[in-house]
Each structure stands twice: as structure tokens, then as C-alpha cells.
Amino acid sequence: MRRPRVRTTLAALALTLVAATVLGVSLGPVRIPPLRTASIVWQSLRSREPIAADDTETRIVRDVRLPRVALAGLVGLALAAAGTVMQGIFRNPLAEPYLLGLSSGATMGAALMIALGIDRLIPLALPAAAFAGSLLAVAIVYRLGRSALGLGDSATLVLAGVALSALFASITSFCIVISNPDQTRGIVFWMMGGLAGAQWNAVWPVLAIVAICTPVLLAFARDLDALALGEAMAAHLGVNPAWVQKALLVTAALMTAACVAAVGTIGFIGLIVPHALRLVVGPHHRSLLPAASLAGASLLIACDTAARTIARPAEIPVGILTALLGAPFFLFLLRRSSAAARRAWGAEVG
Amino acid sequence: MIVRVQDVELGYNGAAVLAGISLEVRAGELVALVGPNGAGKTTLLRAISGLLTPRGGTVHLDDDRVSDLDSRAIATRLASVEQAIRCPPELTVRDAVALGRLPHLGRFQGLGAHDRQVIDAALERTEVTEFAGRRVTTLSSGERQRVWLAMALAQEPRVLLLDEPTSHLDIHFQVTMLELIRSLARDDGLAVIASLHDLNLAADFADRVALVAEHQLLGCGGPGEILTEPLLERAYRTPVERVPLADGRFIIRPRTVRR
After folding, report:
1. Does domain B1-77+157-259 have CATH number 3.30.360.10?
2. Is the residue at A215 inside a domain?
3. φ and ψ of A196, to 5 deg
4. Would you list the domain boundaries of chain B?
5. What residue in A sits closest to B80 (Cα-Cα)?
6. CB A211 within 8 A of CB A88
7. Do the Cβ atoms of A77 and A266 come closer than 8 Å?
8. Domain count across chain A
9. Inside any domain, residue A174
10. What is the mean pLDDT of each run of 10 residues along chain A (350 residues)?
């Protein structure tokens, strides 16, 4: 059912991602021409030879900018994919990992581990707690969301997310208060996150999670399309609604937790990207998921490149830029969806 | 294919909705399910389609017990159209009908030539081919209802369950819808169960009528046999009169008092 338009869009988005990557690696305090950048990246992929001592450009590209761009791309991809899936499950245009409290849940989980000193005792305690925190958030929102679905009111779900975020944030703050200075630094560093100083060792775990989770999301793409018709109709089409919803939300929580663990909280990517792409490729998740993933990667790479170049030598945390883009968009959607909800009330009965 | 409902009991939480329901529907037959609001027509349809598990009794499709089949296996034999279907605003008619192929496709499998043929045939059969490229939400409710029926046909079912397929339709669309449904039974050999509110339409189109009220099946048989004044007054708790027509058919109307 892939129409030519979908194929063209996917191809264009893939090219955009390549361009964003090359530009992201080229731009910075030391400007490296795009072609030179591309050739360095190509060389690095082909051989693992140690870099010559005087080859600063290769060093900058390979050890400084490329890991940062790769991390931005992976995080953007994961957040956009998670947002797409959450909007599909909750049938809610405002659903998104950050707004529904998944990100602050993950932060809280990590802060608890640091404050209690557990992260020093058990190796993977930190990311595991982050995952547990975002799972907790998604479980609560899911329960509330199911009862709110009948109301046809998308704001209810977001209000639940806001309240949850506030609760998690206060627990995180409490952790900071009871911590010793060393732990406090750890928590704050974790919360600030950001892409600055990203190393390859931060890239691999996110890459692994994305590589595992993206096929899972795609496997359920058609079930999501059926769920859009309501749970009963989806069941008539052979879909098990509760099972699909849970499997996908756990996957989305895992992706969100991996992002928060790597770079801290970055909001709104999962909100803007699926909306924009739905207008272009339509509501089918088999097209929408790959399109939104590619676009999410490009968008976060672009935002990060802007964040570290526009106010040079200072660097703006990328979350500020995404919020600057996303928050007005959110308000626009809120206005539109409440009007649509009022209309849908009439339409569903009549 | 035969749908066989045997001594089924259904309920939500504590309260029993229906008990002792037995019903058989054969291929080529259109059975109308009638009864007052809240009698449990939707509940019974959902039990037949496997969405609800009966507390007692069994539902069989031929020799297979529905509760033993997984939902995909059911969906390739039996298609259901619910009364209220949500529709995403961007969904086109063709894409909606294509969703009917879902139970036949593997997780990563795209639509093949056979799937496209089935989709085209379903669009054709329900006369919505001309709308194929349009968004479902831009159609009238009569046209939209035919789209959902096309989606059900794309499942290539042998059994069709329809919950209030004519509600909110004007008399033109009511009649064309029921003519289509009857033809799906008679000409395509589907076993069709449709819940209907309009007793006169049920009388005109159904081969048999099943009357559900008082938590049970009050009767199932030919329209003339079931749609009688005593049975209907008992079921609906309202005085009704059956007015005979010259051609042997009849009209059911409430015995209202004109002031």
C-alpha cells in the first residue's frame, strides 16, 4: 500500500538525514568543509587505523562531533518513534513521552538510585531505575487514559501527565536535598544531561535499544492502524488491543528511558514530528513510523547544531530550543483538538 | 458455514444480561436480532464474535468452538461491524477497506495482488468504488456504513455480524443497505446476523427474526411467527398493533392515542 508519495517522502527524509549529519559534523568552532567531513566519515567507517597525531580535523570529526551527532540522531529518532506510537495508542494528538511524564519518571528513578548510593553498588542500576521510572509513569497514565478515552477529551490525559511530572519532579528535588554534595552533583549532571561532550560510549547503549525497539514498533504498525477504529473493531480484525497497547507502551518507555539516560530530558520532539509527517504520508503507521523516525533524527541533529553554533562560544541546552519550537505548537494543537473534540461529540452520535 | 449458539449465558460483573440463548444460523440466511434497548443484542453479537466469553454454554463456527480459536483465526471466518466506529480524520476509504486484510497478513507483510483484488471487489460490491480516494469522514453516514461493510467483506468472511447497520440512515439508505445485506446472504452465501431496531424492516428483509428481551430469547422464527402482538407487547412493554396489508405482509406500530 506504499504509494509513490510515501516512497518519495521517505527517500527525501533519508537524504535530509544524511545532509543534517554532514552539516552537523562540519559546523562548529573549527569549520570543516562538508566534502572533507564526508570523506573523513567515510574513511573512519572503512578503516580503524589510529589517527595521525597532527590530523586535528579527523580527530575533531571522529572523537568529538560524530559521536555527538550520532547521539542526537538516535535520540531524535527514538523520541519521535515513541511519540508516534503513544499518539496512536491513546488516540490523542497531545500524547508524547515528555508531556505524559515518562521523561520525569526516568529522571526520578535515576535520582533515587544516586541519592541512595545504589548506583555505586550495582552496575546497571541507573538505567534500570530510569526504565522503571518511565514504566511507572506510563502505567499510571495508561490506567487514567483508559478511563479518560471514553470522554473523548485529549486534555485529561495531558493533565494527568502534568500532575505526574510535578510529583516525580518533587521526588527528584527531595533526592537532591538529602544527598551529599557529591551525589547532588551527580543528579544535577544527570538532569541537565544534554549532548555536550557526548562520547561514543554514550552512543552504543542508545543504538542497541533503538535497534531492538524499532522493529518491535514496526511489527505492530498495522495493529495500531486498526486500534484507531476503536478497541472493539480492532479486536474484530484479529488484534488483541490490551496486549498491543501494553507491548508498545513498554517499548516506548524503554526508548524514552534510554534517551533520558543518555542526554537528559528533551521535550516536544515526539509531539511535533509525528504530526507534521502525518500530514504528508497519512495515518498509516507502516509509513508514518519510519518517516517520523527519520525526521526526528534530522530535527534533533539540526536543533543541536543550532544550539551549539548560534550563541557561540556559549552553548544553549538543546532542550531549550526544542521547547521553543514545541510549546507554541502544543498550544496550537490544544486549541485545535478541543474544537475537534466538540465536533466529534456530535459526529460520533449522528 | 453454520453459527451454533448453545445455551449461552452472558453477563457483566455480577449481573446476568442473557441466559439460555440457543440459536442456529446457516449459510445464506439473514437473521434479524430485535428487542428493546439494553436487551443485550450487542452483548450477544460480541459473544458470537468471540469478544466476550460466555459464562456458560458454547458458540461454534461449524465444528470449532469460538473460545478455542485465536482472534486472527476468527477474523478470517467471521467479520463484525460495530455500531459506533471511530475514524481517524486522514483515513481514506480504500485504506479503511484495506484494514480488512489485516487478519490475513503477516506482521511485516505488505499487501499482495490477491489482497488488492479482494479490496477492489469489496469496494465494488458495496458500491463505494467511486469514493475510494476520499476521506471516510467526508462521507454521509449512509455511505460511511457501506465503507465499514466493505472493510468487513475484505476479511473474506463466511459469517457477518452487523450491529444496527441501519441506525441514523434515512429511508433510502435503510432500504439499499438492507437489500445489500440480504443479497450478501442469498447470493454470496454468507450467514448474516444483524441487530435491527426497525421491526418493519426486519419483517420485510429477514429470513428469520430472533427476539431478545427479559434476559432471554423470547422466540426465533419467521417474521410472521415472531412479530406478533402478544410477544412484542411482552418484549417492549408497550401496546402494539399489527396492521395487515393487502399483499399478506403487515405493519407493526405502537398503539398510540391521538389527543
Report:
1. no
2. yes
3. -60, 135
4. 1-77+157-259, 85-156
5. A236
6. no
7. no
8. 1
9. yes
10. 78 96 89 88 78 79 90 96 92 85 92 90 88 92 68 67 92 92 84 80 93 96 92 93 92 93 88 90 92 97 92 83 88 76 45
In a domain, A75, yes or no: no
Beta-carbon count within 10 A of A280 CB: 16
Question: End-to-end alpha-carbon separation of chain B, Å?
Answer: 52
Give the helix ranges, DSSP H, for B20-157.
41-48, 71-75, 93-98, 113-125, 141-154
The interface predicted TM-score (ipTM) is: 0.92
B182: buried, middle or exposed (CB in 10 Å: 19+, 13-18, 0-12)?
middle
CB neighbourhood size of B72 (10 A): 15
Chain A residues within 8 A of B76 when measuring between CB atoms: 238
The set of cell numbers assigned to A89 is 495508542
The residue whose grid cell reads 534517551 is A259
Looking at the domain assignment, is residue A311 inside a domain? yes
Give yes or no for a contact between B225 and B233, defined as CB atoms under 8 angstroms apart.
no
- A281–chain B nearest CA distance, Å: 10
If DSSP codes are grouped into helix, strand and coil, which group holds residue A67?
helix
Say if residues A11 and A294 touch (Cβ distance below 8 Å): no
Answer whether A170 touches B (CB < 8 Å). no
Domain holding A294, by residue range, is 80-337
